[in-house]
Write a structure and sequence with these properties.
Layout (H helix, E strand, L loop, with lengths): L1 E5 L12 E5 L7 E4 L18 H14 L5 E6 L2 E3 L2 E3 L10 E3 L1 H9 L3 E5 H9 L5 E7 L3 E7 L2 E3 L8 E2 L1 E5 H5 L1 H27 L3 E5 L14 E3 L4 H8 L6
Parallel strand pairs: 1-3, 2-4, 4-8, 9-14, 14-15
Antiparallel strand pairs: 1-2, 5-6, 6-7, 9-10, 10-11, 12-13
């Protein structure tokens, strides 16, 4: 998981509260970086050999010791999240998939209010404009997806695990890192373009946002109404999780 000390409000408006915004990355070491010092190098704690619950929480505690003052914690988790519990963490470890109470566990450990959401949902909150049907896809180890209508989330979408193109193959098999490694960058870019057309027909979206670490491997100009967004959207989305409490 990547953790960032986030001390500004959504879209650069000053905010009275200080946040730790956490964006999980299943395929790399956790990192910590302060937006108050954007040029400072990231700090990496010890990475667990297996991303089991105890090991990851221990790593988060290690990062917590490096943080300054904060008031709330926002978490983007790479799997299904319901009421602060984690399910279906396909790219982490099965121990996360049985309804692990991540939100309550972090609140107990850190004595601060915590909110946990799906990582693509959190990134989407920071990327969308809030008008019409908007789809967010995140390209990384797997494929994250979030769907919004007029700024409201349609929860529970796991598009990455839906069958696509061939029986037994999913969107994630083609568009996640497995697909990139298997098919190569040139063919993978063609698959991204095919997915853009397919999701447009499926969801009739008005705007599509593509984020995640592998967007740097995209080599085509985005079509009309398609936008490549920065990973900073996860930070803005982390603040949005608290919108109903000012």
């Amino acid at each position: 998981m990547r953790i960032i000390d986030f001390v500004q409000g959504a879209r650069n408006r000053p905010h009275a509260l200080q946040f730790i915004a956490m964006t999980p990355k299943a395929d790399s070491k956790p990192a910590i970086k302060s937006t108050a010092e954007p040029d400072a190098p990231a700090v990496y704690p010890t990475n667990p050999e297996a991303p089991v619950t105890d090991a990851v929480l221990g790593g988060l505690d290690e990062l917590r010791k490096l943080m300054g003052k904060f008031d709330r914690v926002s978490v983007g988790f790479p799997g299904v999240v319901k009421h602060g519990h984690t399910f279906g963490a396909f790219n982490l470890h099965p121990l996360w998939a049985g309804g692990f109470p991540l939100q309550a566990e972090l609140e107990k450990r850190w004595k601060k209010p915590v909110r946990v959401g799906n990582d693509a949902d959190v990134a989407g909150y920071g990327a969308i404009k809030g008008h019409g049907v908007e789809l967010v896809l995140t390209l990384g180890t797997g494929l994250g997806a979030a769907l919004f209508t007029n700024g409201h989330l349609c929860p529970g979408l796991e598009l990455g695990h839906h069958i696509w193109r061939k029986r037994g193959m999913t969107y994630e098999d083609y568009l996640g890192r497995r697909g990139l490694d298997k098919f190569g960058k040139k063919e993978w870019n063609k698959l991204i373009l095919a997915a853009i057309k397919n999701t447009e027909a499926l969801f009739n979206w008005d705007h599509l946002y593509i984020g995640g670490g592998n967007t740097k491997k995209i080599d085509f100009l985005p079509p009309k109404d398609v936008e490549i967004v920065s990973n900073e959207s996860g930070l803005l989305g982390g603040v949005y999780l608290w919108k109903d409490q000012g």
